[in-house]
Structures are given as structure tokens and as C-alpha cells.
Amino acid sequence: MTAVDDAGLDEEVDAWLRRNWDPDLTVAEWWERVGDSGWTAPHFSLEWGGRGYSRRAQGTVWKAFRAHGALTPPTGLGMMMAAPTILTHGTPDHVERHVKPIYRGALAWCQLFSEPGAGSDLAGLTTRATRDGDRWIINGQKVWSSQAMEADYGMLLARTDFDAPKHAGISWFAFTLDQPGVTIRPLREMTGHALFNEVFFDDAVVDDADLIGGLNNGWAVANTTLLFERTNIGAGSGGGGTSALPGPKGAALDRRAGDVAQHSPVVEASRGLVVSELVALAREYGRSDDPHLRQKLARVLTLSRIGEWTAARMKAEAARGGSIAGVANMAKNAQTIMMKLGAETALDILGAEGLLWGADAPEDGRYAELFNFVRCMSIAGGSDEINKNVVGERALGLPREPNADKGLPFRDVLARTKPPGGA
Ligand SMILES: Cc1cc2nc3c(=O)[nH]c(=O)nc-3n(C[C@H](O)[C@H](O)[C@H](O)COP(=O)(O)OP(=O)(O)OC[C@H]3O[C@@H](n4cnc5c(N)ncnc54)[C@H](O)[C@@H]3O)c2cc1C
User: Fold this and answer.
1) 187 alpha carbon – ligand 1 mean position (Å)
2) Active-site choice (32, 115, 150, 229)
3) Helix axes 275-284, 291-319, angle to 10 degrees
4) DSSP readout, 215-231?
């Protein structure tokens, strides 16, 4: 089902856009058309509602949409992580209720994994889910929850069994954020934006029907989410492709699609960097003959190509039913190096003025903002050190980190490591 290469993609997307793009549709109507035609996920198989192309196809499709003046397909954490996780572990009912609205940009998602005491040690999470008939009552706190303010649903990891060992008592829920028991507080970052949030649960509720992948099986489900997160970041598609956020809180769904088809500088900044953009920038600023810069550009290009090929290898292996140990972690770390080097190179090209911010700064301050933004890449989606640990253990066969918690009921682990009252 998976295409080995993307032969025919350009013609196919172009023909589809000529038949379908209508700037007078609302964003909601346009995205429904896009999602139902498989263009939100062109790199997913036909069974998954995609078009069976390679990982790279998503970028090609976005480019074709832009060239056509059309609003690009919906993106976001729902598309990056929730959709493939639910497609892997959910029932047909879960797919119908949750994945279709993601493809159509109708609902937005955030990831509710990290907690103040559980980041790298994610399995140490203490947000509690207590059964109450056919629903679960949620109490606890999450942190660093990107875009929670704009989200309708959260991928929630909560502990459903404190007596089971650490990794065995966790469940993965599709959690509705708009309810009385949820408080979301934004956290301001050094980019000036508030991407992150703290999310507090105070007797919040989730239906048992929204438990994905089975009771106490959340660690396996979470690993699927993390695999897709790292693979996406590793392939350089962590950012959005469009100027409109999905979901009702994105405030774009009722607008005319033609009016939001342009790209805002903020979203462009989080979109990341492609080497052709850096080369164009170097030419524009008369720096393309500088041997030092050319070396850096060559390095960015090399890392970017390796990232694409690594993603293609993973996909080919997955199509054969296999996987390559540690490769998503390596890809994510390589992408981090590339993004940091790319942002630094952009500032080298622009010179001292490149550090300025705001509309009057060179390139609207996009690269100054990007330079600050990419610092977070070595932490987001699993830190560099944790990724190296995984590669060491799973790919290189190095001894595993000592694990004194193994087999112990989580309640006992907590009693040893956390202050009283934690659970
Ligand atoms: C931009 C960004 C977006 C994010 N978005 C989300 C989100 O949407 N949802 C969400 O749930 N989380 C999100 N996070 C949180 C992210 O997953 C955590 O920050 C990350 O897992 C690290 O956890 P921590 O911050 O608690 O750091 P810690 O786990 O406290 O780590 C601190 C330092 O110690 C190192 N360290 C820890 N354990 C080990 C070890 N065993 N061996 C070697 N070194 C170690 C780490 O590498 C790190 O350098 C986001 C983070 C960032 C930066």
C-alpha cells in the first residue's frame, strides 16, 4: 500500500487543487474537503485515511497548496500524535469520533503527559484516574502542555492502578478539556509567546468510552505517541504548515478560506527551517560567497538529507512489519542539531541586526525568534540525554540504567521517592 517513492504526487495534488480549491468556502468547509480526500495525511496508508505516499509527501503537499494560493491542510499535535496513536490502538468508534475531526481540522489536541515530578521519568506520573461507574474522575496536574489553551482534547496519561508496578498502572485517555474540573494557566517563554501551559484537574471527568488501548496499557500507547512525536520532529515537521490553527478556539473555522491562506510570521517561525530558504537568504544579503557560511549551509543540508533518509528507512521498515531500535531518538537529536545550526546560520547571514525583534527588524525578526525558540528542541519530545540513553540501551546494547523500582507496586516507589501526600 505504501508508495516507495512519490511518483505522480505533484500532478495528483495539482489536479485536485484545480478541481477543488475555492477561496469562498469557510475554513471548516475547505478542511472537511481536504481531510476527507486524504490530503491532511498524504503519508498515511489508505486504510488510515491517507494517500499512501512517503513521509516527505506532507511537505510536498503543503508546498503545492501554497503555490496554488490555497489554505494548507490542518496540522497540530492532533495530527502529529493523537491521530496515529488512536489509529494504532483505538477501536473503529474511537477512529470515527476522534480521528476524522482531526483530519478535518475541526478539533484541536494537546499532549497531557509531563508533570512537575515526571518529565524524563514519565512513568513516575501521579495524576490519578479513579473509576466511577462508566466514567473516570481525574485529579492531579500536568505542565509544559503546549497549546492546551487552544485545544479541545488532551492525550491524557493518568495512573489507574497505584498498586501495579510503575509502568503497568497507567492508562491513555482522550480527554475533553472544556469542563468545570479543568484549569489551564499559560506560561510565558523567552520567545515572548505562551506556547506552554499548566493544566490542573480537580475532579474532572472522562468517559470509559474514551479510554484508548485498554485499561493499564497506557505505557504501550504512550510509547506509540512518543514514537510519532520523535519521528515527526526528527523528520522536521514539528511545526505547523498553515496560518490557521485547527479547532473552534483557533478562531479560523468560520472565516473565508481565501482570507487566511497567507502565512503569519509567528507560525512561520515555528515552522522550522529548510536549507533552500537559508541559501536564498545568503544570496539576498550578498553572503553566498563566504566560505565559512558555505560550510555551515552544507552541514545544514547534510543533516537535513540524513533526516529525510532516516525517516524513509523507518517507514520502509515499518511497511515490512519491522522497526529499527533507537532510530526515532537519533533522528530527533539530529533534527535538534540541525535546527540550532540553521537558526545560528540565519543570524550569521543577517549580521548583528538579525538579533532585532519585531516588524521593523530584518525579516520581521523571524530568525531572532527562531534562534530563541530552537533552544527548547533539546528538551521537547524527550531530552537529548534521554534519547542518547535509549540509543545506547536499545541500539548499541549497552547495559540498562539501574532500575531500583522494577516490579515494585508504584505506591511503594512513591513512598520512597516522593514527599508524603503525593498520591
Ligand atoms: C518546547 C517544549 C514543548 C513541550 N510540550 C509538551 C507537551 O505538549 N506535553 C507534555 O506533556 N510535555 C511537553 N514538554 C515537556 C517535555 O516532554 C519535558 O520537558 C521533557 O520530557 C523533560 O522533562 P523535565 O522538563 O521534567 O526535565 P527532567 O526530567 O527534570 O530533566 C532535567 C535534565 O536532567 C536530564 N536527565 C533526566 N533524567 C536523566 C537520565 N536518566 N539520564 C541522563 N540525563 C537525565 C535531562 O536530560 C535534562 O537535561 C515540552 C517541553 C518543551 C521544551
Assistant:
1) 16
2) 229
3) 160
4) TT-HHHHHHHHHHHHHH
